[in-house]
Amino acid sequence: MYRIFIIEDDLVIAKSIKKHIKSWGYEVECVTDFKNVISDFISYDPQLVLLDISLPFFNGFHWCSEIRKLSKVPIIFISSASDNMNIVMAMNMGGDDFITKPFDLNVLTAKVMALLRRTYDFAGQTSLLEHRGVILNISDSTLIYNNEKIQLTKNENKILHVLIENKGKSVTREDIMIKLWETDSYVDDNTLTVNVTRLRKKLQDIGLNNFIITKKGIGYMVE
Questions:
Q1: How many CB atoms are closer than 10 A to CB 96?
Q2: Residue spans in the chain of domains classed CATH 1.10.10.10
């Protein structure tokens, strides 16, 4: 079931959109904190965003830009500010479509369905994990911290995935090796150590010191 995230400060419009799209079998949530839209976005991890331009604190162009730093999720702008300049700006900032208010809810839903179909018939769904300001995008093996973005190897991505999913708990070396190679046998134990060492170096280069902690005789963890 696809998740739709609505960033709209007019509660009447937001609730109407939510009710209508949910009736078609989608999961829908509305932003709750207009100062920290990205926190809600990461927590909900949607497959499509409906975004107004005129918002409290920061406008939709700002939030579109911030979302694009993290994700390629489809974004449809919904706004009454439909002059050519705003439409062009919305597309240049990373928007995928623009719908002018007032609009027919059935037309909006049809556009949502079409964009979801085009996006996810050919690609996997995105998945974001956040911890202590670190944002891990599992789908494209990237990590962002303090506006710095690094590319991870397949193994580094899997290591961070399992550690962040189990944050605050020790993860055994055996469990991590199963995640990496689907087996805890016939794999040189030193291979995991090498992968973790290289990953730590990448994290340190962007200011993440001691993000991965060694639990002697057990494995690793992130606090």
A1: 18
A2: 128-221
CB neighbour list of residue 180: distance below 8 Å, 6 or more residues apart = 155, 158, 159, 192, 195
Phi-psi region of 218 (alpha: psi -120 to 50; beta: other; left: phi over 0): alpha
Token readout for 57 is 């604190």
**CATH class of the 128-221 domain in this structure:** mainly alpha
* Ramachandran region, residue 122 (left: φ > 0; alpha: ψ -120 to 50; beta: rest): alpha
Which helix (H) or strand (E) is 75 found in, with range? Answer: strand 75-79
SS3 content of the chain, % helix, strand, coil (to 5): 40, 20, 40
Give the C-alpha separation, 128 to 31, whole Å.
17
Per-residue pLDDT reduced to its tens digit, 71-127: 889 999 998 877 788 888 888 888 999 998 888 898 899 889 988 888 886 555 557
pLDDT in tens, 42-68: 989 899 999 999 999 999 999 999 999
Positions of CATH 3.40.50.2300 in the chain: 3-120
pLDDT at 1 over 90: no
Its pTM stands at 0.69
Side chain identity at residue 27, one-letter code: E
Four-way CATH pick for 3-120: 3.40.50.2000, 3.40.50.2300, 3.30.420.40, 3.40.50.620: 3.40.50.2300
d(CA 58, CA 3): 23
Please, are residues 45 and 127 in contact by the beta-carbon 8 Å criterion? yes
